[in-house]
Design goal:
Helix content is about 75%, strand content about 0%. It is built from 14 helices and no strands. The chain is globular, with a radius of gyration of 24 Å. The N terminus is likely disordered.
């Protein structure tokens, strides 16, 4: 009688933890986006009414930075176009796109709503009213910076009004803040319309329309440091608070159990996001849909951890807005389309797709 054969266990290959592939995907995504950002900035400085070869663009930039390895074979006119006209415009596009994407990412986590975007608290309406007042009344107290200063002052005043109104009921909640922002946005938009209708001069309407649609033209090196500083501050603080943003995704009760003071954290973060948004709107106008689209696109690649989503969204937003501005300059050349028009053309269909996706998910959960 033979002994029963014993089954030998099959050797299993060690499986990598799920975090490891996600980390590799995150690193690869950052590298790809960084390369795309450099290529996009090069294209932004090369493309225009006067075409400049990419190699010449790099030569002009490196020579301006003190590099002696390239002979200046280009004309003085091309150097002026690249350094004084296109370079600050491209940098403003990168900073604004990155900032709006980061603010949108944090705003969606704060209110736990996938349709949230940077202008949720009415800051853009306050900035628009400040800019319209400067255009209509011809204020030039701060010279060429008058419009940007007035726009930021309007955004800051709106933030204070929204915050004070939301706090008057006692504990500040995200619902109160959002409702206050919507209410003040409606009132400020109505005041802006009244200013336009009662203006004696007719050319203000076109200037106001151009500003409210957003644009990157006319930026100077002297004013570029402020949106850059706002972006650095916003990303730095949000990266430090990334764990708290992650906790909010699990719900207020779970976040409170983990030791997070949800009300205080939301209030501080709302103020930070509104200030960053106000600076960006003052510099480039209210460019829409960047802060709505990019966070969702980024999460498809790197997941929902804000330690990864925030830097990836910043790079993705910078690349997206640079190419949107390139298209705005070239699609209907020599006429320039406001960049906000193109972002809206991209964002409108994306918004509809997002709503349908959320509705489909809710239906599937109900069936399950």
């Amino acid at each position: 009688m033979t002994a029963p054969a014993t089954a030998t266990p099959t050797a299993r290959r060690p499986t990598a933890p799920p975090e490891q592939p996600r980390a590799r995907t995150f690193a690869l995504t950052l590298v790809v986006l960084a390369v795309l950002l450099v290529a996009s900035m090069t294209a932004g400085m090369a493309v225009g009414s006067v075409r400049v070869p990419p190699g010449e663009v790099w030569g002009i930039v490196t020579h301006a930075l003190g590099g002696d390895w390239s002979e200046p074979t280009w004309s003085r006119a091309r150097e002026t176009i690249v350094l004084d006209v296109r370079a600050p415009r491209v940098l403003l596009g990168a900073v604004t796109g990155a900032g709006l994407a980061v603010v949108g990412t944090a705003m969606q986590a704060l209110v736990r709503n996938p349709l949230a975007e940077p202008y949720l608290l009415g800051v853009s309406s306050g900035a628009s009213l400040g800019a319209v007042a400067v255009i209509v009344f011809g204020v030039s107290l701060f010279g060429p910076l008058s419009l940007s200063v007035a726009a930021f002052a309007g955004a800051l005043l709106t933030l204070l009004l929204v915050y004070t109104t939301a706090r008057s009921g006692g504990r500040i909640t995200s619902v109160r803040l959002v409702l206050s922002g919507v209410a003040f946005a409606s009132v400020l938009t109505a005041v802006m319309d009244v200013l336009l209708l009662t203006s004696d001069r007719g050319n203000e309407a076109r200037a106001v329309l151009a500003w409210t649609l957003g644009g990157l033209g006319g930026v100077q090196w002297a004013t570029l440091w402020l949106p850059g500083a706002a972006l650095a501050l916003g990303i730095g603080v949000l990266l430090v608070q990334a764990r708290s943003l992650n906790l909010l995704l699990a719900g207020e009760e779970a976040a409170t159990t983990m030791g997070l003071d949800v009300a205080r954290f939301r209030a501080r973060t709302f103020v930070l996001l509104s200030l960053v948004t106000g600076v960006l709107v003052a510099a480039a106008g209210p460019i829409g849909f960047v802060g709505l689209m990019l966070p969702h696109i980024v999460r498809l690649f790197v997941g929902g951890d804000h330690r990864r989503v925030l830097p990836t969204a910043a790079l993705g937003g910078a690349v997206f807005l640079i190419w949107a501005d390139i298209a705005a300059r070239t699609v209907a050349a020599p006429m320039e389309i406001p960049v906000g028009v193109l972002t809206a053309l991209c964002g409108g269909p994306f918004f509809l797709w997002l709503m349908r996706r959320d509705a489909r998910r809710k239906t599937d959960r109900g069936v399950a």
